[in-house]
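Input record, target 12 of the design panel.
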């Protein structure tokens, strides 16, 4: 039976991610840029996307992960098929992710959060593991951008971010 996480359980997930990020940093291991090395050119079904999110965040099978087609973002740039929006509900709070392919056709999971310029909810960075998620939570700057971070149609019309060059 599916289980909706409590806000407290979601906080424990976030804490575990922050701990993993801190451990990686203490060991001097860098984060990996880009999408996962999971099989590419695999047709991304909602089930596959949920499985990848469970694997990346080390979620138990009983934790509910809701999936639906994302009407704003394609599965891959230029495709007709929609990306998959994943949600981990936890009471009044939830975490949302976009599952799509990057330009090299690697599967990418991206937390959805407010754009720092316009406040629209957009895919932010690519996460490959729990430590990447922790780095994202603590605001680390060395994670690779989501393939749709700058091009997301969710940005407000007056948002300057889509026109800004990528900084390295």
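The sequence produced for target 12 reads:
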């Amino acid at each position: 039976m599916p289980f909706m996480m409590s806000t407290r359980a979601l906080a424990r997930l976030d804490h575990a991610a922050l701990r993993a990020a801190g451990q990686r940093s203490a060991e001097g291991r860098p984060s990996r840029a880009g999408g996962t090395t999971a099989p590419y050119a695999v047709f991304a079904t909602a089930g596959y996307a949920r499985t990848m999110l469970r694997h990346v965040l080390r979620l138990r099978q009983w934790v509910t992960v809701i999936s639906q087609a994302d009407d704003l973002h394609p599965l891959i740039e230029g495709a007709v098929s929609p990306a998959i929006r994943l949600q981990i509900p936890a009471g009044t709070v939830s975490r949302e992710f976009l599952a799509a392919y990057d330009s090299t056709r690697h599967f990418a999971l991206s937390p959805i959060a407010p754009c720092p310029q316009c406040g629209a909810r957009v895919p932010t960075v690519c996460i490959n593991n729990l430590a990447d998620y922790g780095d994202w939570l603590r605001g680390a700057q060395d994670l690779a951008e989501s393939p749709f971070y700058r091009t997301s149609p969710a940005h407000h019309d007056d948002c300057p971010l889509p026109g800004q060059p990528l900084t390295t």
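Residues 116 and 161 are 9 Å apart (CA to CA).
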